[in-house]
Amino acid sequence: MNLMLYFLYHYFFFFFFKQKTAYEMLRSLVGSEMCIRDRVSTQSTGRPFPAKMPVSSHSPSKPSTPMFASDLRYYVGAWRRAPFHPEADPQCLSVTDGTTVCIDGFDGEGNLWKLTKLGKGEYVFESGEYPNCFLGPDLRIKKSAQEAARWTAKSYPVFRGGEYDVSAQFCNNYNQILCSSEATRQVAILSEQEADEKDQEGNFVWNCAWECTPDLDLEAEEDHLKSYLEHAEL
Known about the structure:
Blueprint: H1 2-45, E1 74-78, E2 91-96, E3 100-105, E4 112-117, E5 122-127, E6 134-135, E7 141-142, E8 151-155, E9 166-171, E10 177-181, E11 186-190, H2 192-195, E12 210-214, H3 218-230
Antiparallel strand pairs: 1-4, 1-12, 2-3, 4-5, 5-8, 6-7, 8-9, 9-12, 10-11
């Protein structure tokens, strides 16, 4: 009898006091774990982690790339930043005697080009009037696309701003620029520094971009020439 009372006494003592102690230990462990977590989050950044990481409002914008239709021929007109007379005929890239290029009038021959796109966003100039006629890296005419110069087209501010015009600057693999001079009707490949050459009066010597106008119909061509001539000198 005494032995049974002894066991009952220890059983109730363990049930009421030990269970309560385990519960209190669990609460203390949970509180400790929360304190440790909060301390780690503030030590790494100096402040608690935000619920959502902030996103920059200044996202980098992709460079604009001009697009040319593969089934159209273009007049590659000089983008006039160098001084010119408003009544002077507009000039465009043209084949000279089938061997080299210059800039000539829009009403001449050999002044229509196809801009054929290759891989990696590169283009080649192919004559839209003469067969097997490509613009080479030395500005001489080549007989195959494999020999032609590769050009990267970069968007440029509009000059005349015709509905279908594409303003672009053409650079080769050495980041040299395809330029023109209406004063001498010369085409040249120049570095950025050379392209920005100025005369004694502070005017640019070279045009460093082109305005490409698709050959659509005679009426559109006449409108293009008229608006080109009426455009005020820059």
